[in-house]
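Journal club prep — side note

Before the paper discussion, L.F. wants everyone to see what a predicted structure for a comparable chain looks like in token form. Sequence:
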Amino acid sequence: MPNYFSYFPKIYYDAVGAGNYKQVTHLLSRVQIKQGLKETGAFFDEYIVQAGETPEILAEKFYGSMNYYWVILIFNNIKDRYYDWPLSQYDLEQYINDKYTNPNGVHHYEKVQDSGPQSSIDNSHIIEVSSDVTGATPVTNYEYEQREQLKKSRIRMLRPEFIDAFIEEFKGLLAV
């Protein structure tokens, strides 16, 4: 089974401008998934990444080979493998302590919206407000970062029966 970069086009490149061209993989090629595909529930299943799971582990679990890790990353628009994927608890603690001088300081204030849903799985029923709004609740830097990690842990897994079609489409888009 070919790996991710084997699908990329090859170009001739002279790294130092000395007329010595070598064939290299064109790493700047990019492909974006059609918006409709990512929104059509028939193509994917919602999944919550568990502690310690990596894209490779999930690719093996869902697709039978860790070599499909890149499908998970592309399908979820994950560009930074470290910060766009859920961090371990240890790494999250380190990240928070490095980012904030006071992890327990107030990040922002929020309250439940006055109209519409009063609860949700993804906190979409909560709105940011200023501190002087009636019912405003402080959210610490730590709480904010934990919520961001929960968002990152909710991913979409392309259903296995569509993996071959996805790869063919990917190859076709890179060939253009």
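L.F.'s comment for the group: The longest strand covers residues 106-112. Keep this in mind when we get to the figures.
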